[in-house]
Amino acid sequence: MTRWTLSPDRIPSAWFNVAPHLSKPMDPPLHPGTREPVGPGDLAPLFPAALIEQEMSTEPWIDIPGEVLDILRLWRPTPLVRATRLEQALGTPARIYFKDESGSPAGSHKPNTAVPQAFYNAQEGIRRLATETGAGQWGTALAFACSQFDLDLQVYMVRASYEQKPYRRVAIQTWGGAVVPSPVDDPAHPGSLGAAISDAVRDCVAREDTHYALGSVLNHVLLHQTVIGLEAKEQLALAGERLPDVVIAPCGGGSNLGGIAFPFVSDADVRLLAVEPLSCPTLTQGRFEYDFGDTAGFTPLLPMYTLGHDFVPPSIHAGGLRYHGDSPLVSSLVRDGRMEAVAYPQGKVFEASVQFARTEGKIPAPECGHAIRATIDEALAAKETGEEKVILFNYCGHGFLDLSAYDDYLNGRLPDEQG
Amino acid sequence: MTRWTLSPDRIPSAWFNVAPHLSKPMDPPLHPGTREPVGPGDLAPLFPAALIEQEMSTEPWIDIPGEVLDILRLWRPTPLVRATRLEQALGTPARIYFKDESGSPAGSHKPNTAVPQAFYNAQEGIRRLATETGAGQWGTALAFACSQFDLDLQVYMVRASYEQKPYRRVAIQTWGGAVVPSPVDDPAHPGSLGAAISDAVRDCVAREDTHYALGSVLNHVLLHQTVIGLEAKEQLALAGERLPDVVIAPCGGGSNLGGIAFPFVSDADVRLLAVEPLSCPTLTQGRFEYDFGDTAGFTPLLPMYTLGHDFVPPSIHAGGLRYHGDSPLVSSLVRDGRMEAVAYPQGKVFEASVQFARTEGKIPAPECGHAIRATIDEALAAKETGEEKVILFNYCGHGFLDLSAYDDYLNGRLPDEQG
User: Which residue numbers delimit the Tryptophan synthase beta chain-like PALP domain (chains A, B) (predicted)?
Assistant: First the structure.
């Protein structure tokens, strides 16, 4: 057998909170004006109370509401797959497993947190959400989730993506979401994630009926993603494995990495590996310090690895990984040596993605390709040493909406990168 | 519970052959030159012996080779889902189930036959396949399958799709297939499926190492798709249902319809319903007679419903349903009254598809939307009568590569149709 499914009634009933497992407590976010620690009241205009409580919680487990489970069960538990064809092509003694998050309605792991965020907002009487999106993975996921709870949604989409990659914009609209190009006040500007966050926060603050929603970085977002790692742990046992030797995931803001890796944090022998683009090397070349989450400095200051909130990463196909900062939880684990990080140029990433497509049959999203690149390199290292290493990586999304990137790669049109 | 999975070891081990269940034997295909019945020798330049034998077999069950099962298990068995949110939105007492074929590597049901076709050709020592594709569903599926058996692939893609909808072309190339616009000898011609078939057959006949492969219409193709209905039958029992009252699928050449419906053909109380586009109404307005499979008259004459092999359907978004003829097996069941057919204009189809996306969360391919339209109408009829009808339909593919069609629908750009 090379694929392990679980019946929908085997979905995890609680999220795993990594906060109490850290070697030292997290430093608090600071108010952008006063630079004093932010309290729940400061966040209330943006988020519902339940999410603020989760953001600050040190409880080890947090129950998943039944209404959320009912929707997650539309596609969860997701399969765990052993990549035997890739192993054979590499001639490696390593056993490679991946958790396939591409079967969600939006085609990525993002709905795992979009659904509970929509639920808690609806429960609190909120009628409308505002958010930003870059290439559109998060915007589509939240549009799907809002359709399930009859919430209106306003998406501010980076203008360059809105105009040049219209497919995810159309998906947002198909699910009933409204989407406009950002920045809204400068039609000549190509836009940036930072500017789109500013637009969304401004919208939210101006309207009583509206909250803001974020698809990565924050503690509660990563908490919601831990269903990935919890299921994988159970499925690895079904596959006859004790624990993986290494868990690998791409890292932009950190949500899919945290989702698969955090449940293994107390298993000391399990290496945790973050993979980022060389063009936006937050963990590998950034500094750990307090910085803003957005370009304009509207958000609280977070303790994290950052390239500086005015850093503008070059345009790469893995739009989901172009973020100047990183999740404070992930940053903390990297700083303390519990998690490693590596960076790759996109040409090496697409080379790995095409090898994966031609062996395992699935075409990955460029973000996901970063994990595949690192997985292949780990497997080739195991070939050198003869080690029967067990590798687990997160297949965090499909590439059906990123095929123009493959077209560029296959036809030699990817820009040169230092690497 | 609203979703029923089966472990990969529960995949069907044999295909269901509908031929021995017909009320009278099929009329044979005729040679295009002599108009005499075609024998196995006539087909040997195009197909491997195992597929020719399946094409003519009246054995009730045909074993699926282990090498084929190993690849089908990458995504099969597929889930059966109860569409409770759609039921609630319609206020119907009907129970609606769908078989979700969208999780295959190519995103549709097509790999179910692409894999065995590639396998039998590789087993016979063939090194290369040639095929045609319209919008690209079949070309992508065969490219994936050829990558699994190290076969070269040449795809002739209808020029208009090649130029205007490049995503599936890129997917074919990502899996290692070669693709050229058709017709090859007239760069100014927008192309047609008939012309692309002619290009592929000509390529195949000219080269010893090359066979031809077809994605629908033929008996062996529909045979391979019966894993869909066989799994659905087992999963409906798990869901506590005896049998569906009606089985619904879109119909172009007939492969996904045959796949889900044939295993129910001997269950006399189960209605079988084919859904086609009003712009290409083969079963509802065509004639049952011998006709060519292609425009140029290269292929054998098949006994089928046809609009005439020179019929040119208008351009619609459900490219997979634009075929002048139909599977002889499906045609035979319609002629004999065992199967019904209905036709819809595409505006009504997209209306249903958007309702499905906003309730069940998944964005369907336009082909698939035809089945959803008919399902909704059956469910609304059940609401009128109060009948607790059980409806099963085939969710034969996702719409991630068809979002420009949704863009046209949502912005009022679909052309008017008679309906």
Answer: 73-397
Q: How far is CA A25 from CA A35, A42, A349, B119, B325, in A?
A: 19, 21, 35, 57, 69
Are B361 and A148 inside 8 Å of each other by CB?
yes
Nearest to B363 among A1, A103, A171 (CB): A171
Distance CA A102, CA A71 (A): 16
Contacts of A175 in chain B (CB under 8 A): 357-358, 363
Chain A residue numbers with beta carbons less than 8 Å from the beta carbon of B107 are: 400
Strand partners, A130: A154, A212
Grouping H, G, I as helix, E, B as strand and the rest as coil, residue B286 is coil
Evaluate if pTM is beyond 0.90. Answer: yes
Do A176 and B406 make contact, defined as CB atoms within 8 angstroms? no
- The answer to whether the Cβ–Cβ distance between B400 and A360 falls below 8 Å is no
State the smallest CA–CA distance between residue A8 and chain B in angstroms: 7
| Distance from C-alpha of A44 to C-alpha of B329, rounded to nearest angstrom | 63
User: Which chain A residues touch B406 with a CB distance below 8 Å?
Assistant: 170-171, 173-174
- Cβ contact, residue pair B167, A358, below 8 Å: no
Mutate one of B2, B98, B150, B174 to test the A interface: name it (highest A CB count within 10 A).
Answer: B174
A383 CA to centre of own chain: 30
Query: Can you spell out the DSSP letters for B136-150?
Result: SHHHHHHHHHHHHTT
For tokens 């990659």, the residue is A165
Q: What is the dihedral of CA A273, A279, A280, A281, to 10 degrees?
A: 50
CA neighbor of B181 nearest in space, from B201, B167, B161, B198? B161
Ranges of beta strands (E only) in B60-177 are 61-63, 80-82, 95-100, 128-133, 152-158
Judging contacts by C-beta atoms under 8 Å, the chain A residues touching residue B70 are 2
Q: What is the pLDDT along chain B (419 residues), one digit of tens a residue?
A: 899 999 999 999 999 999 999 999 999 999 999 999 999 999 999 999 999 999 999 999 999 999 999 999 999 999 999 999 999 999 999 999 999 999 999 999 999 999 999 999 999 999 999 999 988 999 999 999 999 999 999 999 999 889 887 899 999 999 999 999 999 999 998 888 878 998 999 999 999 999 999 999 999 999 999 999 999 999 999 999 999 999 999 999 999 999 999 999 999 999 999 999 999 999 999 999 999 988 888 889 999 999 999 888 887 888 888 889 999 999 999 999 999 999 999 999 999 999 999 999 999 999 999 999 999 999 999 999 999 999 999 999 999 999 999 999 999 998 766 44
Interface of B with A (CB under 8 A): 1-3, 5-9, 70-71, 73-74, 81, 85, 103, 105, 107, 144, 147-148, 166-167, 170-171, 173-176, 354, 357-363, 398, 400-401, 403-404, 406-407, 410
Residues of chain B contacting A80 with CB distance shorter than 8 Å:
none
**How many CB atoms are located within 10 Å of the residue A266 CB?**
11
Give the per-residue SS3 of B249-271. EECCCCHHHHHHHHHHCCCCCCE
ipTM above 0.85, yes or no: yes
State the nearest Cα–Cα gap between A297 and chain B, in angstroms.
Answer: 35
**Alpha helices (runs of H) in A305-395, residue ranges in sequence order:** 328-335, 346-360, 366-385
Q: Tell me, what DSSP letter sits at residue B91?
A: T
